[in-house]
Amino acid sequence: MRIVSLQPSVSVILDHLGHLDTLVACTRYCLDVVPGLRSANLPLVHDAWTTTTDELTALKPDLVIASVPYRHESLAAILKAGFSVLALAPHSLADIYSDIRLIGSVMNARDQAETVVASMQSAISETSRRAASAHMRPRVYCEEWGKPLIHWQYWVKELVEAAGGEFAGAPGVVTEAETIAAADPDVIVMAWCGAGMRVPLERTVEKRGWQHLHAVGERRVFCITEELLNTPAPTLIGGLHALASVIHPEIFGHMQNAQQLRCIDFEAEPSKLV
């Protein structure tokens, strides 16, 4: 089977199922999440938001797999051109498990899919078990985008709760800096789509007037690389571990991987933001 992946989550799932070799093309974002693809030298296509039928025609794929976010117009054009399309739109962890099983079924890899799902569920259950020993559940504001401010998706809410936190706000909705300030969360985590580790934490806090927030005063404002939380795939377990380390470091320890997590830096002078 010849598959074109229009979203990193699709490539991650195929990798975990042991069927990465079925890819005949992927997006440039897939290379960041699945480093093994870099040596494969596959043709690169646009993502599910901007892909065109012209670039797919030359590849002659048996199946094009897309996942959110995507433009319905783009997928409609691909279908109209005669390509088979599998479009995924997960909202929860249960949806992600279903997508893994669905792709596993398409690839005749049902057993592998069940193994991947079971591994994710086991990691989440173990984290939840350990977090249950905490004396409190910190309120955690999770930001997927900064202009406008958007809360993370429902699956991140589930991960925050598994890590022993309380998700502040409503998943996936737009909010305001003033609303978050009024909520005064204990922990702030940002992972802007496409920004990687480049979220300007210090400047963001200053521009929004958040210097007085509890999370800022306690130096509990973090950037987690977006691929760990915005990719609905097994890589979410890495996001879970990162969340656990910032929500309950007394239980899970401090995550040391600077390429996946960083804390706000006051240059040893917290008062400079006041």
Topology:
Layout lengths: L2 E3 L2 H10 L5 E3 L2 H6 L19 H5 L5 E5 L4 H9 L4 E4 L4 H14 L3 H22 L7 E8 L2 E3 L2 H9 L3 E2 L6 E2 L1 H7 L3 E4 L10 H8 L5 H4 L3 E4 L11 H12 L1 H4 L8 E3 L11
Parallel strand pairs: 1-2, 1-3, 3-4, 5-7, 5-9, 9-10
Antiparallel strand pairs: 5-6, 6-8, 10-11
Summarize, please.
This protein is α/β, with parallel strands linked by helices.
Structural features, described:
It is a single chain. This protein has 274 residues and is an alpha/beta fold. The chain folds into 2 domains: 87 residues, Rossmann fold; 142 residues, Nitrogenase molybdenum iron protein domain (Rossmann fold, 3-Layer(aba) Sandwich), CATH 3.40.50. The protein is 40% helix and 15% strand. It is built from 12 helices and 11 strands. Strand 3, helix 4 and strand 4 form a beta-alpha-beta unit. The longest helix is centred in the middle third of the chain and has 22 residues. It is globular and about 55 Å long.
Q: How many discrete structural domains? A: 2
CATH superfamily of the largest domain: Nitrogenase molybdenum iron protein domain
Could you estimate the helical fraction of the residues in percent? 40-55%
Q: What name does CATH use for the topology of the largest domain?
A: Rossmann fold
Identify the CATH architecture of the largest domain: 3-Layer(aba) Sandwich
Give the class from helix and strand content and strand pairing: alpha/beta
Compute the gyration radius: what is it?
A: 20 Å
Tally of strands: 11
Separation of the first and last Cα atoms: 58 Å
Spans with pLDDT under 50 lasting ≥5 residues? 268-274
What's the CATH first level of the largest domain? Alpha Beta
Strand content: 5-15%
The topology string of helices and strands comes to EHEHHEHEHHEEHEEHEHHEHHE
Largest sheet geometry:
7 strands, mixed
Average pLDDT metric:
93
